[in-house]
Structures are given as structure tokens and as C-alpha cells.
Fold this sequence. Notes:
The longest helix is centred in the N-terminal third of the chain and has 14 residues, at 54-67. The chain contains 8 helices and 6 strands, in the order αβααβαβαβαβαβα. 37% of the residues lie in helices and 17% in strands. By secondary structure, the chain is an alpha/beta fold. It has a single domain, classed as Rossmann fold (3-Layer(aba) Sandwich). The termini are far apart.
Amino acid sequence: MINDAAYAELMARGRTINRFDAIDSTRTALLVIDLQNGFILPDSPFGLARAQPLLPLANTLAAALRAAGGKVIWTRHTYTDSGPRAVAPWQTQNPVIGALAAALREGNDAHRLHADLDVAEHDAVIDKYRYSALTYHSSDLHKILRDWDIDTLIIMGCVANCCCETTARDAYQMGYKVIFLADGNAAPTAEDEAAARLSVASVCADVRPAFEVLAMLAA
């Protein structure tokens, strides 16, 4: 386990690579990843207790970005058995992934975004079929971002060290500026979240708490 001093040093080193002290809100999108019933509801076998506080935070950030002229995108992790967006069959042979794949189907309650989320009429809601929203055969996210002339992504959601981290990495590789919310990406444990923050901060994202991002939008 990395100690606190080494963690702080590595995070600081990463901020010299990817640091955005000002953003053009009109070219910025909040990407809220997979705040679905399956990952939020306490009676779900995949529910994350640490994701519960993200619901009001997502609403606050979404409202602030809309007011500043930006866009909001909500993703739903989705599985299908046919077509190019189906995952490799061997992947769902794992019992955990197989159960997740059975739950996260269009029309299932687990697949739906949580009812407490304030999804506005002009927001985009997209299904993604891979951990990363931007990888091959995952979604139409890149086209949507191009159509909206977006160059900056604020990423939050769950799971921090899976879908959120892989999306952040791909976004960076595709030329987007990435802001990864330090207090807005949930995982099963605090250690998992810290690992994700360190991983993206060191190579591909500006990791900031939500209050700093809100101040940037207000400015």
C-alpha cells in the first residue's frame, strides 16, 4: 500500500502534466457514468454504498454546467447478446459478470438511471456497451461530443476504477481535456477510489474536488 506522503507526491506530479485552471464552459460536458439502480439501490447485489452521495452532487454539477452553457450526458451500462456491441461470450461466463449482464438489460429496473437524478430534456442519455464509453463498439458518445463541439469532459460516477477510469484514459487519448472529480467517483472501497485517482492523475486527467469545479464554472 502506497503511503500518504508518496501518494501526495505522485498526485502533485500528475498535476504538472494535466492542469486546467480555467475552462470554456460552453465547450464542456459533464459525463455522469452509470448512476443506475443496479449500482445504487441498497438491495441490489451490485449496489455501492459509496455511490449514494453522488446523486445530489451530480444534480448540483449538472445544474451549474447547464447554467454556464455546457452540456450534460448520462450513461447507462448495458449488455446485449447480439450485434457488434455484444461482449465476447467468454466474459459473461464469469458468474459475477454473467449476473451483471443479466441485470443490465434495456427495460430492466437495474438498468434505469436512479429516480433521484435530475435529467433535463436537453441532456443526452446514452447506453454504453463497454467499460469505457469511448472505446470500440461502446456508444455514440464521441459523435455527440463532436456535434456539440465539446473539448473538455468532467467525469464522475461509478465505478471509479473501472468505467470511470477507462473512459478518462480513452478521452485523453482522443484529445479531450479531462477533469476527474476527486470526490465524485465511487468504488467499493476508499482504497479503490484512491487508486483510480492516482492512476488517472499521473497520466491523463486533472483530479479536482467538486467545489473547485463549481468555482471554475461560476467564473
